[in-house]
Amino acid sequence: MIRYGGQVINIPKVAAQDTTLTVSKGEDGRTTFPVPSGTCIDIHVPGLHHNRTPNTFYHEDKFL
Question: How many other β-carbons are positioned within 10 Å of the β-carbon of residue 24?
Fold first, then answer.
């Protein structure tokens, strides 16, 4: 049960350089936005483990 509801919720990070981040918007497509150097970013750990459709593997979302 710990793996399903783990203790770590967010992993804080800081962007080391200017970059862009592309996120999926479900069936509507993707959105890309700039991330300037020094921006604080939280990685949402539970979101990494829960896919929108668990029986389908979206390789384009996992590998760039």
Answer: 13
